[in-house]
Each structure stands twice: as C-alpha cells, then as structure tokens.
Amino acid sequence: MEISEKLVQNTVNFVKGQLDGAEAGHDWFHIERVWNLSKKIAETENCNREVVELAALLHDIADPKFHDGDEDLALKISLEFLQRENVSEEIIEQVLFIIKNISFKNRHELPGIFPVELQIVQDADRLDAIGAIGIARTFNFGGFKNNLMYHPEIPPAIGQSKEEYKKSNGTTINHFYEKLLLLKDLMNTEKGKKMAEERHIFMLGFLEQFYREWNAV
C-alpha cells in the first residue's frame, strides 16, 4: 500500500512543529534520517509502506527521556494526530504498536516474531544510533546530560535491566558498550544487517583512536 503525499506532508509538518527546539540527537533531522532509512529498507521487504512511513515519522514524537519517563505520551499524541487525519483504525493500531515497541530498552518485552513493519523502522532507528551519526548523537546527548566523556575507573554496566538502563548516567564511552556496539547483532532485516556492518566497523575504529589519544600513545 502506498501512502498519500498529503498525509506524509501533514505528518512531516506536525512532527517538525512538535520537535521544534528538541535536543539535537532527537530532533526533526533524526526523524528525517530514520524516515529515509526506513524507506530504503522497505524497498527490500514485503510490507505496508503507509505503516512504515507513519511510524518512522512519529516514533520519537515524545521520547520518554525528555518527558519524565512517560512512555504513554507518544502514543497519546500520535493517536490524536492520526485520528484527526482520518487514518484507519487498523493502520493506527499498527503504527502505535511500533512506537510502543521500537525502543532498545523494550527489546526484552517483544514476542519472538513481530511485524515486518516494526522490524524495518526499528532497524532504521538503530542504524541512526551507530556509525558516525551515532557517535555524534551519543556525545551530543552526553553533553546534554553533563555526563563524563570517559573515566578509566568506571566500567560499562553490561546487561542492564530496563529500569537500570533508564536511570543510567554513565560515561559516554561506556554507552558504546552498553548499547551501540550491541546493535549490529540485533538488526532484523538483511538490508539493515548489511548497513549496520559498515557503521559498526567505523565505531570500533573511533574507539581505538579515542583510547590512543586519551593515553597519549
């Protein structure tokens, strides 16, 4: 199913307005990159393009990190918008399912098999968390939180629970080991896996150079 251009533009305008002034790692440009990646991956999958594009555009409309941990606000805002746009209940239900389950911290709550549309948008979102863009976003958010870049005596907290992950204020470098370097092996689609490989290698090279410079090697 193809998505109407009018609905796309209305959604783009709505998201831009909602995210005006957002933290730079979770702003409109993040949404745009995930949207474009989702469309690229969707070309290789048998999927509902309307669900994919709407979910990609709305997936971070109210990230809980910036709303006191409220995981229902994004669902409420998206539901009200989609109803105003007269989107079918079936499509709305699928879009909200993706928004609810896309997050890294919610990965253990998903069933073993889940819709291809979620697989696509989740891969796109994870791709934007790794590689050069992922590095930039990670340091931007670390600065936003005033976290240390690195501390040799603070080890990464591997295998955090959902609640531990939500409350974590570890170093930015530790975040690579707690999340970013794990994403390559969590990709769903073949296209996503292929794209993640290159970005993963780039991050490993960055970390190697970072430690060399830190230690004045």
From TrEMBL:
<dbReference type="InterPro" id="IPR006674">
    <property type="entry name" value="HD_domain"/>
</dbReference>
<dbReference type="Pfam" id="PF01966">
    <property type="entry name" value="HD"/>
</dbReference>
<feature type="domain" description="HD">
    <location>
        <begin position="27"/>
        <end position="130"/>
    </location>
</feature>
<dbReference type="InterPro" id="IPR003607">
    <property type="entry name" value="HD/PDEase_dom"/>
</dbReference>
<protein>
    <submittedName>
        <fullName>Phosphohydrolase</fullName>
    </submittedName>
</protein>
